[in-house]
C-alpha cells in the first residue's frame, strides 16, 4: 500500500474510521454517520486552503467540531421535515401539493430557518412572533422587553434576509433555465 500523498489523504486515512465511529455513537445510526463523516471531509476538501494540524488531538477536534455542526444541521432539517409532514397530515390529501412543490417548500423552510439562525436571537424571535404568530409590534415588544420601534427594526432585518433569499432563489432559477 502506498503512503498518503497529501495532507487531506493522510487525514482521511488516519481519522475517517474514528470520526465515523464517533458519529455512529452520537447519532445511533450507521448510515447517517457514514453520510456525515463523508460530508465532513467534503467540507474540508472544498475549503480554500489545506489545513495543517500540529497533533492528532487538533485534527480530531477540528473534525469533531465540523461534524457536530453537520449533526445540528441534520437535526434541524429533520425537525423542519417533521413539522411539514404534520402540516400535510392535517390537510386533506386532495389539497397536498405535488412532490416537486413539497420539495421546494422544504428547501425554502430550511433556507429561512438558516437565515433566522444567522440573525441576533431577538431579531429572529421578533420576526417569528410578528409574522408567524401575527402579533402586533407592541405585543412582540412586550414579549421581548423592547420598544415597538425596536421590533420594527428587528422585523425589517429579518425581512431583508428573506428578500436576499428570494433574490438568490430567482438567480438560481434564471441560471438553471435552458436557453431558448
UniProtKB/TrEMBL annotation:
Q: Does the keyword Transcription regulation apply?
A: yes
Q: Which residues form a coiled coil?
A: none
Domain named RNA polymerase sigma factor 70 region 4 type: which ranges? Answer: 110-159
**Keyword Transcription regulation tagged:** yes
RNA polymerase sigma-70 region domain mapped to chain residues: 11-78
- Keywords on this record? Sigma factor, Transcription, Transcription regulation
Q: Which family does it belong to?
A: Belongs to the sigma-70 factor family. ECF subfamily.
Q: What name goes with this protein?
A: RNA polymerase, sigma-24 subunit, ECF subfamily
Query: What species does this protein belong to?
Result: Methylovorus glucosotrophus (strain SIP3-4)
